[in-house]
Amino acid sequence: MKFIDIVKIFVKSGHGGKGGICFRKEKFYPLGGPNGGNGGKGGDVIFEVYPQISTLLNFRFNSKFIAEDGKKGMGGMKTGRGGKDVLIKVPAGTVVKNKETGEVLADLDKDNLKVVLFEGGIGGRGNAQFATSTRQAPRFSQDGREGQELELVLELKLLADVGLVGYPNVGKSTLISVISAAKPKIADYHFTTLIPNLGIVKIGETESYVVADIPGLIEGASEGKGLGIQFLRHVERTRLLLFMLDSTSANPKKDYKILFNELIKFNPEMKFKTQMICFSKCDLIDKTRMSQLKRLKFDSPISPFFISAATHLNTENLKFEMWNTIKAMV
Ligand SMILES: Nc1nc2c(ncn2[C@@H]2O[C@H](COP(=O)(O)OP(=O)(O)OP(=O)(O)O)[C@@H](O)[C@H]2O)c(=O)[nH]1
Ligand SMILES: [Mg+2]
């Protein structure tokens, strides 16, 4: 299964209610004047950004959003009840496009943003409105206007192509400073990076991709340890995860499992993301250690990279492999 960042849905706003055809009923006047009210307005199709939603997963199970039709106008000049709107809840960063033409209809990038995409049809006029001096008892009314319907594509805009995850101090910021023009703070203590940095990695003259360097992650981050996991929102909206493991760590495999678990606790869908693994600081280990690390088995189909941001060992290879992996996904 793939991480869901694009879905197709169908939306329809409500049809306006028909105008009422009614007459006053009064004693001794079998045919009182016309008093049919107007039809109610159809429901709207509304999109709203919910900060607690971060993916388009729900649309896999529910892809039809149909607003209610307006009700018929009633006697006593009463307007029919308006149809209920349909509210479509989406994550920030959702772009709504016409499926047929690709035209962007809405760009929902801020929390709590609300956009009425289609209004429901207005209700038809009731027969009361058609009475004239020569036509005192009209037996007709107007139909409500039709709602609008359309097939849409929802796309979740990515913040970066690659999300770099690892313990504090493993060399994430150093790597991004080597493969991109970003100049993040680098220091030999934990939690040097406090907010995510984006680095643009250039491939040749014209092509590039974006890597997000995020603060270090530790066991218990999902319960708020370290800098917590709020910044994981930035990794959620990436195509590829690069796990960085310190080659000098006592148990890199365990480090990987802890990191992976924290991600899953934050958002279970992260397990569907494509992963790559790299061992950092390989200038500090010897050949025996390198062979030991090479024997470790990971679920990722791509073999781990052994890099050193200090000596640039394999950093170019890693850079190109990430590019190839991203390109293969789109
Ligand atoms: N020997 C060696 N040291 C490295 C390498 N890469 C980074 N370092 C050093 O490791 C320390 C931490 O590097 P950072 O890039 O700040 O690590 P980080 O993962 O971004 O750390 P946080 O932002 O705290 O999560 C610094 O002192 C770096 O100079 C490497 O390839 N080899
Ligand atoms: Mg850092």
Describe the structure.
- This protein has 330 residues and is an alpha/beta fold.
- The chain has 2 domains: 1-157, Spo0b-associated Gtp-binding Protein, Chain: A, CATH 2.70.210; 162-329, P-loop containing nucleotide triphosphate hydrolases (Rossmann fold).
- The chain is built from 5 helices and 14 strands.
- It has a 6-stranded mixed sheet, with helices on both faces.
- The longest helix is centred in the C-terminal third of the chain and has 15 residues, at 252-266.
- The radius of gyration is 30 Å and the shape is rod-shaped.
- 40% of the residues are buried.
- The model has no long low-confidence stretch (mean pLDDT 90).
- The protein binds guanosine-5'-triphosphate and magnesium ion.
- Guanosine-5'-triphosphate (GTP) binds next to helix 1.
Q: How are strands sequenced across the largest beta sheet?
A: 10-11-9-12-13-14
CATH architecture of the largest domain: 3-Layer(aba) Sandwich
Distance between the termini: 15 Å
Mean pLDDT: 90
CATH topology of the largest domain: Rossmann fold
Taken in chain order, the helices and strands follow as: EEEEEEEEEHEEHEHEHEH
Sequence stretches where pLDDT stays below 50 over 5 or more residues: none
- Count the strands? 14
Shape: rod-shaped
**Portion of residues within helices:** 10-25%
What count of domains describes the coordinates? Answer: 2
